[in-house]
Design brief:
3-stranded parallel β-sheet; Rossmann fold; 8 helices; alpha/beta; 5-stranded parallel β-sheet; elongated; 2 domains; 46% helix; 243 residues; 17% strand
């Protein structure tokens, strides 16, 4: 099964990179290469994020080019623009190939949630690099996550605001069309209120929302001490500019 192939071939490579330890013996290349699928946003709004991660894994593979069995790794790259529909297409194409041992996905939670049925159907190991929604790995034997999930991040952020910054009132902005933004905002609000904080507003921002400056003006009337913004950078910039 491909899941066992990932454990045998990919994980030793990642562990060596993480530890930075010197190898006890020289690994001589066999000339074989293991194809690993890479799906991420290499064009569109989130292009810089995808390119940065891809450059990172390519650099890491130059420092440790061989697996424990002396085979190399060849990356098979597909662009999904961080759009779930395109992610499904890319992952389906890669997973249906017999030579692909595993897939790295750089896109966000919405994209990875969309591919869960495909991953289960083809039983192919997927490593989610950027997706943090807890549902990404729930009831899945084949999807693993790298980052702390949104429940952890939202809880830590709220406790930091209350216990370290000593802030009492917060206005929260979120995007209801984003699994990442919705879950993170919800967890922050729950923990903040449980810790005695006050949420002055919870603003749900979409592409159809009125002018940001009008929203910020309305929020400012309630005099929050902090704005919590689990949004895309473009939205955060628009809000900060309007403050």
């Amino acid at each position: 099964m491909k899941i066992f192939r990932l454990k045998i071939l990919l994980l030793p490579w990642l562990l060596v990179l993480a530890s930075g330890c010197e190898q006890d013996r020289e690994i001589k290349p066999t000339g074989m290469q293991i194809p690993i699928g890479v799906v991420g946003p290499f064009s569109g709004e989130n292009r810089s994020k995808g390119e940065a991660v891809l450059n990172g894994i390519r650099t890491a593979s130059r420092f440790q080019p061989l697996l424990a069995n002396s085979s190399g790794i060849r990356f098979v790259v597909r662009d999904d623009q961080d759009e779930p529909r395109r992610t499904i297409q890319a992952v389906t194409e890669l997973a249906s190939r017999q030579d692909i041992a595993a897939i790295l996905v750089f896109s966000g939670s919405d994209a990875v949630l969309a591919i869960k049925p495909v991953v289960e159907q083809y039983r192919i190991p997927v490593l989610a690099i950027a997706a943090t929604n807890p549902e990404v790995t729930k009831n899945s034997r084949f999807i693993s996550r790298v980052h702390f999930n949104d429940q952890f991040q939202g809880t830590v952020a709220a406790l930091f605001v209350r216990d370290e910054l000593l802030i009492d009132s917060v206005a929260v902005f979120s995007n209801p069309d984003s699994a990442y933004s919705t879950y993170l905002a919800g967890e922050f609000i729950r923990t903040c209120e449980k810790a005695g904080g006050t949420i002055t507003d919870h603003i749900r921002v979409t592409t159809e929302s009125p002018e940001i400056s009008r929203i910020v003006e309305r929020v400012a009337r309630h005099r929050p001490e902090l704005l919590y913004l689990p949004l895309k950078a473009s939205k955060v910039l628009a809000i900060v500019t309007a403050v």
